[in-house]
User: Fold these one by one.
Assistant:
Number 1:
Amino acid sequence: MVKAIVGANWGDEGKGKITDMMAEQADVVVRFQGGANAGHTIKNKYGKFALHTCPSGVFYENVTNIIGNGVALNVPVLMKEIEGLVEKGVPKPRLLISDRVQLVMPYHILFDECEEERLGGNSFGSTKSGIAPFYSDKYLKIGIQACELFDEPYLKDRLENICIQKNPVLTGLYHREPLNAEDLFRTCMEYKDMVEPYLADTSSFLWNALKEGKTVLLEGQLGTMKDTDQGIYPMVTSSSTLAGFGAVGAGVPPYEIKQIVAVSKAYSSSVGAGAFVSEILDPDRAEELRRRGGDGGEYGATTGRPRRVGWYDCVASRYGCRLQGATDVALTVIDVLGYLDEIPVCVGYEIDGKVTEDFPTPRLLERAKPVLETLPGWKCDISGIRKYEELPENCRNYIEFIEKHLGFPITMVSNGPSRDDIIYR
Ligand code: GDP
């Protein structure tokens, strides 16, 4: 069976930790979308890691890790990541890369940088990893699939066409040097040597694994609010972050997805620009939560950028869980809130004088103001607790208050960064 682990919010909910934890009981872990633009932070017996491309099952020798066809694969970044794991004593991971995956090319990153520069203050806050230009090319049908690396004449033709398409914009709009098909071909051949040992027909591998009764985890990147269609467009990422897309981006039958764990952090955080209704606007209060947040503060795993932080947003999270099709909610990083006397929770949005509990379209979202309810804090350290009944009453009330507003069952509560910091309900 397939289980998906996805973000209910803006990303950075702690999916890496939950995946690493669930991978212990799994046979295969698959990344199905996104690229090296966001990271998953994992802390375990080998140390602390920020994974950008590797699936979070790489720490288990019995797990096959798959980079699915839906991923934006930056080959050198992946190679460096694997080297980094091995250097820190992790056994060389069992890894398969879909022969249909497409490659992030250096010009995707260049276009990303140029466009952010052109937009200046109005930019989308891109991590400049080439993700938007990559997915644009994929749907323009000028992307490069890994399997094309093995058909040199065909590839050369494609690269020449890419230069014809891209150079007028590159030179005319961005005033940069034009691309050269021969250079691109050389880069492709370097990538070919790097990926060749890992390439496989991964959808067929997964089909067989499922027939044999194996457990497959789909690991999402970012969260519902960053989904191209259902998120806060245009402040979104360029691939679908939804569990449903897992079927496409991994190549598994949709009916095999039996469990969908929507990971939701016990407070909110978001990187980059865009509406963020429950954001804490007082700079000192925000800085305190940012500093205490996550494991070592709320700073981007890929960029080191400080994340914007806010109170838990029931409106956005309920919408986030609904679009994911959550069967379970994992509420994470709740231990961090132990310092607060009282904890505001956003239970509604006020838009043009009217209060709603429904997540609005992006244009209306810009005008939304949070309706906050304040709950008492628990004022103690809850890390180390393993039984739900042993949590302080105010902490349980906080969890149950959120669960009631979500309408989805919180079956896991994470109270620390490590694998075993988990309370099952
Ligand atoms: P992801 O992209 O969804 O995996 O999230 P990130 O890796 O960006 O952020 C999660 C951060 O919180 C990481 O530093 C984790 O080690 C940490 N983390 C995960 N769960 C918990 C938790 O329950 N408590 C604390 N304190 N930190 C956690």
Number 2:
Amino acid sequence: MSFFKNVEQVPGDPILGLTDAFRADPRPTKVNLGVGIYYDEEGRIPVMGAVQQVERALAERSPARGYLPIDGMPDYRTATRELLFGADSPVISEGRASTSQTIGGSGALRAGAELLRHALPFARIAISTPSWENHRAVFPAAGFEVIDYTYFDDAAHGLDFDGMLADLGKLEAGTVVLLHACCHNPTGADLTANQWDQVIALMHERNLVPFVDMAYQGFDQGIDEDAIAIRKLAASPIRNFLVANSFSKSFSLYGERVGALTVVSDSAEESGRVQSQVKRLIRANYSSPSFHGAALVAGVLNDGGLRRQWEDELGGWRTRIHALREGLVERLAAHGATGFDFIRHQAGMFSYSGLSRAQVDRLREEFGIYAVGTGRICVAGLNRENLDYVAEAIAKVA
Ligand code: LMR
């Protein structure tokens, strides 16, 4: 007799499950364009120079590993907040932003979701169509009902801004709206500064609660440029919003699980109460966060020289991704696949290629090229070696 006899098998994760299948694929020409990871020209996940230096210094010092505070390492929390809002932001000087170290960006989304369920038990959450697959897992797992808002125009391969405004304009007051700060996952279609102004004005007018997810800061235009949505929200009359951010990509520290939840409150006093709730939620979930990844990020961000080195390296990645986009469009055209020009203009790691699920299946089965079923491909998985092979394969299935 088993208590688990009725437990159902669920399909593998639409993104991380692809990596499992990729690992099991024996073909030497296989290419993983599924998961959002930045690979270098040699196809390796780079360890950043500045991170290596902090890591060596840490190994030398071998600091004691007592428990971190429930909401994480103080230096890490301060540096993260300044990276998000800018060091001179009034929400920081007014004591309105409380930051907690979390287990990656997903941990931040989950902690934020639980806080919102506590503060606004009847609220629903609106998520863009499409969005990162895990958004639609994290929020229901925390008890949220998810509603969709229009975001993308498939035919035009770009943002459907009118559709987005129309849908946001219909939401009930108190609805939480999940927004991607930059490098929208999966579409790579971002809002302009002016469009952010309009969305923020609408959210203020309709009393909506912004929850911004920023997993790719520095991957499109720059560290500050990519934080424009957060900076604009901080300067707006909206008094409450949340930010989940991740250093997985921008520090190439995926497996270290380094992220943060920042909650902006109406006053320093309110912020203290909110933070006490976040700490309660974290304590009941995983007690307190882990040391190593946060020590690496804080070590880089709090040292002027290392920080500049990090910014330069990240800037190089950004430039390389733009070049890979150009290269892909050019190679596709050379193989007779025109009409992919839009890839040049998408932001961040991903290209929403417009390939159908059947075409994605053919890429995997016939060529060992792994992409997400929605047609999302990770441009940062391309390099000089595989670019032409991938372009030729896409041209064959498209
Ligand atoms: C992705 O979208 O590929 C990444 O954020 C990895 C993940 O956890 O899904």
